[in-house]
Design a protein that fits this description.
Layout: E1 3-7, E2 10-13, E3 18-25, E4 34-39, E5 46-51, E6 58-60, E7 68-73, E8 78-83, E9 92-99, E10 113-116, E11 120-125
Parallel strand pairs: 2-11
Antiparallel strand pairs: 1-3, 3-8, 4-5, 4-9, 5-6, 7-8, 9-10, 9-11
């Protein structure tokens, strides 16, 4: 059974940092791109970052570029999202998802992601 479990969310002040983790089980993580998405209150879900299965390619939304860093440890079945310089606009529920493909690319198209975690909440206070 494919399972993705996010952790690491919480309450942080503006300018603070959090590291989100995504634990994958039930499939071979090595073969698939992984994405992080977020949904803020009253807004649609949006792509934040993704990493190719080979970890050679990463993507960041303009809103987080330079502040967030995605990484993966296939041996441990883990994907991470290091978030620095957090702002109130980063407040959202963050989801990790596994894409239906691997290789040297990834993207922020939700339709390409077949399995999703339950989300972890990040709240940034001003």
């Amino acid at each position: 059974q494919v399972q993705l479990v996010e952790s690491g969310g919480g309450l942080v002040q503006t300018g603070g940092s959090l590291q989100l983790s995504c634990a994958a089980s039930g499939f071979t993580l090595d073969y698939y791109a992984i994405g992080w998405f977020r949904q803020a209150p009253g807004k649609e879900r949006e792509g934040v970052s993704c990493i190719s299965s080979t970890a050679d390619f990463t993507y960041y939304a303009d809103s987080v570029k330079g502040r967030f860093t995605i990484s993966r440890d296939n041996a441990k079945g883990m994907v991470y999202l290091q978030m620095n310089g957090l702002q109130p606009d980063d407040t959202a529920v963050y989801f990790c998802a596994s894409a239906g493909f691997g290789g040297y690319t990834c993207d922020d198209n939700e339709d390409d992601y077949y399995h999703w975690g339950q989300g972890t909440r990040v709240t940034v206070s001003s």
